[in-house]
Write a structure and sequence with these properties.
The model has no long low-confidence stretch (mean pLDDT 96). The chain has one domain: Rossmann fold, CATH 3.40.50. It has helices spanning 21-32, 45-57, 72-86, 109-135, 149-153, 159-179, 197-200, 205-213, 223-234, and strands at 12-15, 36-41, 61-66, 91-94, 142-146, 185-191, 245-248. The longest helix is centred in the middle third of the chain and has 27 residues, at 109-135. The relative contact order is 0.15. The protein is globular, with a radius of gyration of 17 Å. It is an alpha/beta fold. Helix 1 (21-32) packs across helix 9 (223-234) and helix 4 (109-135) runs parallel beside helix 6 (159-179). Bound molecules: NADP nicotinamide-adenine-dinucleotide phosphate (NAP). NADP nicotinamide-adenine-dinucleotide phosphate binds at residues 16-17, 19-23, 40-44, 47, 68-70, 95-98, 118, 146, 148, 191, 193-194, 196-199.
Amino acid sequence: MAIHDKALDGKVALVTGGSRGIGRAVCVALAQRGAKVIVNFAGREDAARETAALCTAAGGQAVVAQFDVSDGPAVTEAIKTLGKDHGGLDILVNNAGVAINGLIMRFKDEQWDKVLDTNLAGAFHTARAAASLLLRAKDAGRIVNITSVVGEMGNGGQAAYAASKAGLIGLTMSLAKELASRGVTVNAVSPGFIETDMTAEHLPDAQRAKLIEGIPLGRIGASEDVANAVAFLAGPEASYITGQVIRVNGGMLM
Ligand code: NAP
C-alpha cells in the first residue's frame, strides 16, 4: 500500500499500545500520512522503539512514551506532559488491550479487573486526560477506539473481553455526543480476527481452517487492514463521521 498523501501533516497523534500488532500498524499508517506519532507502550520498550523506527523509515516522525493505561493518575500526568512537549494533541487512538480468556465459573476477579481496567477504563482515562487538548486542536480533534467483533456478538470464554469491548462502543457514542459541538469526532473500529501476538498463541491449524470458513473474504485480517480504517477516521475526509462503529472483519459479522 502506498498512501503518502500527507493528509495528517502537522498533526500530533497518540496511539496507546503502539508497540506491537495493530497499534504498530496504526502508528506507521499515521506517520506515513504526516502525523507526528507518540508510540505508547506498557512494558515492551524495545518493541515501541522498533515501531518508532518503522515510522521514521516511512518518512514520518515518532517518539515513545511509557504509561499503563489502566493507571488513571499516570495517564493524566503523561498526557499533560506530552501535550506540553508536542504543542497539543490532535488524534487519540485507544488501541491498548489485553485478552484473558476463560469460562465464567472459573474466571477470577483479578482477571476480570485486568481486562476491564485496561480495555475500557484505559480508554476512559486517556479520553478524559486528552479531551481539553482535542477540543483545542486546530482542525478538530479525533478519537478512534479499537473495539472488537466479540464486543458486538459475544464469544463463549471471552465474557470479560466482550464486556470491555461492548462498553467501549457505549463510551464511543457518548463521547461522540459530548464532544461534537467543537467538531471532535469519536468513532470505533471493530476488527474481526487479526493476526497478532494476541491471537497467535490460541490457534491450532484445524481451528484456524474452521475460522477462515466463517470469514466470507476467506482470510484472517492483517494489522494494516485495521490501520487503514483508523487512518481514514483520523483524517479530514472523515470529518462528518462520528459515533460510528466501522467493522473491519472480512465479513464475519454483517
Ligand atoms: P497485541 O499484539 O497483544 O498488542 C497489545 C498492545 O497493547 C501492546 O502494544 C501492549 O504494550 C499494549 N498494552 C497492553 N496493556 C497495556 C496497558 N495497560 N497500557 C498500555 N499499553 C498496553 O494486541 P493486538 O492484537 O495488536 O490488539 C490491539 C487492539 O486491538 C486491542 O485493543 C485488541 O483488543 C483489539 N483487537 C484485536 C483483535 C485481533 O484479532 N488481534 C481483534 C479485535 C480487536 P506492550 O508491548 O508494552 O506490552
